[in-house]
Amino acid sequence: MLKTLGRVVFSTGLENPKFTPQDSKGQDYEVRTYQQTNWVSTTVTGTEQDSALGTGFNRLFQYIRGNNEKKVKVEMTAPVTCLINPGEGPTCESSFTVSFYVPEEHQAAPPKPTDPEIFVEDRKELTVFVRTFGGFANTQNTREELLKLSESLTRDGMAFKEAPYYRVGYDSPFKLVNRRNEVWLIKKEEGKD
Predict the structure, then answer these.
(1) From edge to edge, which strands make up the β-sheet containing 181-187?
(2) What residues are paired with 190 via a beta bridge?
(3) CA-CA distance, 156 to 192, in Å (whole number)?
């Protein structure tokens, strides 16, 4: 447990999912293609992004601490992704799917969750447009960065889905400087919505 907690606290040396960088028309964003991988996920509905992310993180943290069928501890990974599917209006509930990447050691057979609100997600290959920003991510700066990314992609004539989108974090809340956060917009494939 100390090893897992230490990795969460210091956010160093965490395993990340592999991706292939793609050519980008702009200097203010990246294009990445992530290969098909397993993630452990939970969905929270609500109107407040930050509290939903906290609830989802806490559920998943219990899973990696051994609250799974095999009762095995699973190493912490980065990033923590949150797929946000916005509600119809500003006061409508949104869907927030918080996910931890399953480390290579468990990719072939992830431990089955015992909590019915947690599931193993087979995330298909995914191409995303990525904007990176520092500081502590919150609802406000995530929206601002998402708008900047959307404007850059529109400027460059890139086809993307406006929703759902990802809020992505790499660091523990205890890390105070040199923080890394991202927003991801999903690339719209030709002939698909």
Answers:
(1) 19-22, 30-34, 126-133, 181-187, 160-169, 80-85, 94-101, 37-46, 118-123
(2) none
(3) 20
Contact 101, 78 (CB under 8 A): yes
Q: Which residues pair with 120 in a beta bridge?
A: 40
Q: Residue 126 pairs with which residues in a beta bridge?
A: 34
Per-residue pLDDT of the chain (193 residues; tens, 9 = 90+): 434 433 343 445 899 999 999 999 999 999 999 999 999 999 999 999 999 999 999 999 999 999 999 999 999 999 999 999 998 877 789 999 999 999 999 999 999 999 999 999 999 999 999 999 999 999 999 999 999 999 999 999 999 999 999 999 999 888 889 999 999 999 998 766 5
| Run of H or E residues at 64 | helix 49-64
Structure token digits, residue 35: 């290969």
Query: What is the Cα–Cα distance from 24 to 36, expressed in whole angstroms?
Result: 22
Peptide bond connecting 79 to the previous residue in cis, omega within 30 degrees of 0: yes
